[in-house]
Amino acid sequence: MNKLTNLQDLIFNLEEVYNLPAEKQNEIKTQLIIENFKYHYENNEFYRNSCNEKKINLNSIKTFNDLIKIPLIPVKRFKDVNSHLLLTKKLHEIEYEMRSTGTSGIPSVSRRDSKTVDNALLSLYAMYREFFKLSSGASLFLMPSTEDIPEMGMIKVLGMISGLTDASWYAVKGNKFKAQEAYDLLEKWSHKHTRHIVGPPFLVYKFIQFLQKNNLKIKLDKGSYIINLGGWKRFTGEQISRKEYNDLCEEYLGIPTSNVRDTYGLVECNSLAMECTNNQKHISPWVHYSVRDINDLSQEVKPGERGVLAILDPISTSYPTFILTEDLVYLNDTDVCNCGRNGQVVNYISRVRGAEIGCCAINLEKQMDTAEASESAKNCVIV
Q1: Which 3 state secondary structure label does DSSP give 225?
Q2: In angstroms, rounded to a whole number, what is the distance separating the alpha carbons of residues 255 and 246?
Q3: Count of the separate structural domains present in the chain
Q4: What's the rounded Cα separation, in Å, for the pair 302 and 203?
Q5: What three-state secondary structure class fits 2?
Q6: What is the C-alpha separation between 198 and 201, in angstroms, rounded?
Q7: Which of the residues 304, 313, 339, 364 has an alpha carbon 20 to 30 A from that of 346?
Q8: What gap in Å lies between CA 76 and CA 90, rounded to an integer?
Q9: Does residue 295 fall inside a structural domain?
Q10: H or E element: which one contains 122?
Q11: Quick check: is 226 in a domain?
Q12: Exposed, middle or buried: residue 381 (CB in 10 Å: 0-12, 13-18, 19+)?
C-alpha cells in the first residue's frame, strides 16, 4: 500500500484503491487535496485572497475533517466575464478550453494547462477501463463528433471511448439525427462486434422512439453497454424517467438494466462518477464529494441526506477545482457497494431551486430542435 502515494500511482492501481477501506481512501485523498490546496494558495493570488478573507491559510487544512474548511468557488463564476482570474496558470500556458452552455446562452469556460489535461485523460481512461473493461467492439455515438463541436465537454469526454473500441460512428451530423443510418449500422455490426451505444439520455430515448414508430427491435450483445452522460431533464423541462428508460432499453435494445450505465460530472471538474453493475455512481477515489446543508453551506449533512454538492478535485493545476455546484444530491449511507468497491457513491436529485437549467445535453437538444424546426419551415409549401 505504500506505493499509493501520488495521483499516477492511484490511477494505475485503481482496482486496488477501490478495494481499500473507505478510511484508507480518505487518508490518501486528503493528502492529495491538501497538497493541491497548498499549490493553489501559494501560486494563485485571487484564490489566496479569497482564503485570507475567510481566515483560512496553509495551517488551517491538516486532516480529513479540515477539508470542509477549504474555500469553494461557486460554479457560476466560470460563466463570469472575468473567469480568467480563477487561473493559477497564465493564459499562455492554457492548452485547452472546455465549455458548457445552459439556457442563458452564457458559456461556462474551464481552462486546462498541459499537466491538468494529462491528469484528466489518464484518470478518465482509468475509470472507463475499471467500469467497462473496453478494449474492442464498436461504439455507436448518438451525438455529434468533436469535429462538429470541439469544445463541448460532454462530447469530448464521451468521445474518448472511441479510443477503446475498434469501430465508431457518430449519428448526429449538422444537428440532424440519422436514426435510420444508426439502426442500419447496428445491424451491419451484428455478429462482427460487441455493440455499444454512447450518448446523452435524450438521444438514446429519441432512437428508441424511432424503433417504436417503425416496429423495430434490436438485440444487443452479451457484453454491450449503453453509456450515458448529460442528465435526464430535456430542454423543454420534461424529465426522462430512469425506470421507463431502463425498461425501454431492455425491450427495444435487448440490454439488461445492469448494462445501462449513467455517469455524472461537471465540465469544470476533471472526473466522472460512473455506475457499476448495481447502477451505483462511484466517485473517483482521489476526489471528495462534500454534501452541504442548503441553509448553511459551511456545514455538511449526514450521508443519506440531501444537500448541495461541493467537489474537491486535486487533479487540476490550472485553477482550484474546489467547486460549489448547483446540484442537489445525497451520498449513500454506506461506503461499501455490493459490486465490491468501497468509497463514496453519489445520487443526483435535481438542480438547486433557482439555478439555471443547463448542461451540454440540454444545449445540444435545443440546437437540434431549432435546426429541425428550421428545416421543417423550409419544406413547408403554402398552396
Answers
A1: coil
A2: 9
A3: 1
A4: 35
A5: coil
A6: 9
A7: 364
A8: 21
A9: no
A10: helix 114-132
A11: yes
A12: exposed
Q: Please state the φ and ψ torsions of residue 309, each to the nearest 5 degrees.
A: -80, 130
Dihedral pair phi/psi, residue 245, rounded to 5°: -60, -50
Written as nine digits, the cell of 291 is 454534501
Element (H, E) at 369: helix 360-379
4-53 confidence digits (pLDDT tens)? 668 999 999 999 999 999 999 999 999 999 999 999 999 999 999 999 99
Rounded distance, CA 334 to CA 344, Å? 8
Read off the pTM. 0.91
Task: Give how far Cα 93 sits from Cα of 45, 47, 85, Å.
Answer: 17, 18, 14
The torsion region of residue 279 among left (phi > 0), alpha (psi -120 to 50) and beta comes to left
109 in a structural domain: no
Q: Summarize the confidence of residues 60-70 as an average pLDDT.
A: 98
Q: Please report, for the chain, how many H helices and E strands are present, in that order.
A: 10, 17
Question: 3-class SS at 106?
Answer: coil
Q: What is the CATH number of the domain that holds 154?
A: 3.40.50
Q: Would you say residue 193 has pLDDT above 80? A: yes
